[in-house]
Amino acid sequence: MEYLGTDLKKGLSSREIPLKKKLFGENRIEEKRRISPLMIFINQFNDFMTLTLIGATVISAYLGEVADAAAITAIVVINGFLGFIQEYRTEKSLQALKELAAPVAKVLRDGQIKVIPAKDVVPGDVVLLETGDRVPADGLLIEAQGLSIDESILTGESLPVKKSIEPGETPDIKIHRKDLAFMGTLVVSGRGRMIVTETGMSTQMGKIAGMMEGIEEEETPLQNRLNVLGKQLVLASLFICAMVSLLGIIRGEKAYDMFLFGVSLAVAAIPEGLPAIVTVVLTLGVQRMIKKNAVVRRLPAVETLGCATIICSDKTGTLTENKMSVRKIFISGETIMVAGTGYRPEGDFISSDGRLFKKPEGELRRLLEIGASCNNAAIEQQKGGLFRGFLNTGELVSSGDPTEIAILVACLKGGIQKENVDRNYKRIKEIPFDSDRKRMSVIVKNRRGEIYLFLKGAPDVVLSLSNRIEKHGQVLPLDKKTEEEILRVNEDMGKEPLRVLAFAYRKLSVQQMDERDPEHDLVFVGLMGMLDPPRPEAAKAVEKCFSAGIRPVMITGDHKTTAWAVARELKMIDRDSKILTGRELDEMTEAEFANCVEDVAVYARVTPRHKLKIVRALKKKGHVVAMTGDGVNDAPAVKEADIGISMGMSGTDVTKEASSIILMDDNFASIVAAVEEGRIIYDNIRKFIRYLLSCNAGEVLTMFWTSALGLPLPLLPIQILLMNLVTDGLPAMALGVDPPEKDVMNRRPRPKGENIFSGGFVKRIIYRGLFISVATVAAFVLTGYYGDGNLTLSRTAAFATLVLSQLIFVFECRTEKRGIWEFNPFSNISLTLAVLLSLIMLVAAIYVPFLQDIFHTIPLDRNVWMLIISLAGLSALA
After folding, report:
1. Is the peptide bond before 160 cis (omega within 30 degrees of 0)?
2. Active site residue 314
3. Dist CA 871 CA 878 (whole Å)
4. Which of these is catalytic: 314, 630, 642, 666?
5. What is the pLDDT of residue 749?
């Protein structure tokens, strides 16, 4: 502590952190070198067709066609620059996502518990370790309560290592010391504190790379399919381009001209950027999701989101606010009302006959003291330190589990402060809460040397461990009648709906303190009912789910009456809906559960192992399942689900690593917003694929028809490349950010295995490409007659018709169901601006004198423009 300049109670001072970061660097494992912006730019020109085109331009310059060569080079560079911007933005976005999804650490700084990125941990930090946490650095343990750590990532040993504050049997072998925790290892049970001794490359993890690589940059199934499609289109386009070039040579055109033409057409026709644009659109969509509090860790999840048919959600904190306040206490056969709401310490204890409890005594005091002692939350001042007062707003500054915070607030209402209770009952040992055990207990010693076990947990569990009850100052046997009364009160509280905890204790001898399982023969004290109101936005989100053909399912460890009451308030259930408890689930055969799984709307009193069973049963029925989770034991179910969702606020590191999506606000409405965004992204990808492939088909077919009919080439290579720049780039990207259609959440989820080209998509592409080519060839032929065989006029008209047809068609691609005239052109301002910019480039190429020489165009009169607009419009209406 002296060497590292730290303090056990206050941790480091925030003033020391910048200096320590300078001395020790960031707490991260060195990553593989990222590709530089320069290399990203150079890579835009390393595909075969672009290199061939560059080679052809060099030959063209050598033969004296300097203007053409310069123009083609300029267009290739501009295309490369646009590609660079897209790829660089994607790289930066993915890196930002990694930072968002990177591990965090709980540290003590300036006397306050703070959650910081793991990379900001420095030597001397006091780190708090809890079940499910990744150890952020190497350190010396100063507290270990039932602490077990999985060190398999470091040692290869499969069994967790029990930790203590003693070095153990082999203190000379650092990796085997019991009092050390190592970076990257996982806390599987218990809790503890450690002083950080080494960070970053100085840790035992050393050169193991990728610890901070939170997001996996794997290709989505759609990207894989488009890569395959791209290769097929390359072969088809090369074949057609070769045929067109060959026909031109047979017709008497120069071989070099036809070679340059063929390469230019191939560059324009091959959608080599299609997978890249998909990545850009996915990344832009992911950025929009971040604004809606959903961080995507794996891009394939974005595709799957649109297919979700069932969302299995935790109740507490996801469907409800997770801002608990104690409303009722049941002791000695009497129900006591607790006034006040939120985290405010004002409020009275009022009996059923209206009496005020000014100073808690007897069983009420005992219950509150158990609640304060068997508790790891903290209520703090704004400037640090434990509670000494509260803010002007009346709200206490707190940290820890919301249930435990609510208990401490109730204690303060009775004048009982945790720090005083902890002085009177010094904690010796803790048996941590576990979702399977459904309870937590501490062993404490009071000032007289008496040893007690204090326990809180689920009422049915606590009752099963109790054989006595404290009533009116006496400890009496717990008979069946009293037990039934307690269970009835518990059920009544659940219907309100209150979350109910029971409290009990046991006096221990020194020998009993070391029992393997001291949680038995308890004295039951009472119940505490807490209100956790549903989130205001949850009801709307549930309604949206049903409209979208998605069934929301509640999964909770709470009592079934509480769960049912919340589900009813959120309108998650109807007459045919069923509720199942974990016990009923255990008693069912696999076949019985499979028969009813689609009718169950609420699962109560379930454990994480039940979650896995639920996911598998639903998947066998053909459903695409989204599953939420926060605890370590939730990780298998989260990983098994089609869409695993972890909680950003309450979730453990191991669950986050198993998930596809992290919810930054733990809110059910954010899940639904993410599903909606997933549908929008998929729709937009279909839109620009339809646009790009239809336009490319139109270009290739135009060349094919004219060659087959023995006509001159309707476009020159430089015109083809300009058209590719004008129509393929900006309008296609703008379609990728098109606003959603009104019915996006009013239609059923698409089947998971559905091909992106389903629903007659290929026919539409060929059909539209055919009409674009017919309109272009018609403009070329008709202006040939009108201009008395002026080939430059015909090519300019064909060029303008092809570009204009595509720019009109881009608006048609915004929907697959409605007409082009039903859309407000300004609802996607990016698309409108992209089309306007493309039109300006088209007009400039035709009317700016020095561009006319480069692109071999001439000005068009009104009659020609009328013909072009008519043909382009007809192709859109066809």
Report:
1. no
2. yes
3. 10
4. 314
5. 92
